[in-house]
Specification:
The protein is an alpha+beta fold. The chain has 2 domains: 15-25 and 70-169, Transposase IS200-like (Alpha-Beta Plaits); 27-62, no CATH class. Helix content is 33%, strand content 21%. The protein has 4 helices and 6 strands, in the order βββααββαβα. The chain has helices spanning 53-61, 72-89, 117-136, 157-169, and strands at residues 15-23, 32-36, 49-51, 92-97, 104-112, 150-154. The protein has a 4-stranded antiparallel β-sheet, with helices on both faces. It has a two-stranded antiparallel sheet with strand order 2-3. A hairpin with a 6-residue loop joins strand 4 (92-97) and strand 5 (104-112). The longest helix has 20 residues, at 117-136. The relative contact order is 0.25. Mean pLDDT is 85; it is low at 176-180.
Length: 180
């Protein structure tokens, strides 16, 4: 392994590996010019949703308060607490990032095969909300997270290693660090 290279990841045949991503309330709206995916555009190789002014305006009109951004202190906290939330859920934490874009998180974890990523995402959001609100108070909107997110079962070693490296490079606290 070269310096700065991610450790090689292997799939656990007794568990399902999940790549879970979700964003903050109102920060990334479909059609606002930044790449997004929705239920109809969330497969490898499909085009992202970019500019669609009417769709972005409609989504903006449905927001329940201010857009939530994650300042550095909050992102560092998220990266430090997600491993314990994974332990609480009975999942094996691999890597988590709250990137500098300040509007989403990625996590890669292993879970029992009977547990679906959508359920894990629901619990991660709930437990992160509790931890964030206890530490920083509730956001003005009352909601930390956007409604949905992405849950992808990782079935191939190549995808696992690409996702791991991608997430690790985006960590606010640096590669492999738990805190600053």
């Amino acid at each position: 392994m070269t310096p700065n290279a991610s450790p090689v990841q292997e799939l656990n045949p007794l568990r399902t590996t999940w790549h879970i991503t979700f964003g903050t309330h109102g920060a990334r709206l479909h059609g606002d010019g930044r790449p997004t995916v929705d239920r109809e555009h969330n497969r490898l190789g499909e085009a992202f949703i970019y500019d669609d002014g009417p769709r972005a305006d409609a989504e903006r009109g449905r927001l329940r308060g201010a857009v939530v951004v994650l300042p550095r202190e909050v992102r560092v906290f998220i990266e430090s607490v997600v491993p314990s939330l994974c332990e609480r859920g009975g999942w094996t934490h691999r890597v988590c990032a709250a990137p500098d874009e300040e509007d989403h998180i990625h996590t890669l974890l292993d879970a029992p095969m009977k547990v679906h990523g959508k359920d894990i995402r629901k619990w991660l959001k709930r437990w992160l909300t509790e931890a964030l609100s206890a530490r920083f108070g509730k956001p003005v909107s009352g909601e930390w997270w956007a409604e949905c997110g992405s849950t992808k079962a990782v079935k191939e070693r190549a995808y696992l290693n690409n996702a791991y490296g991608y997430i690790e490079r985006q960590r606010t606290t640096g590669r492999g660090a738990a805190t600053d």
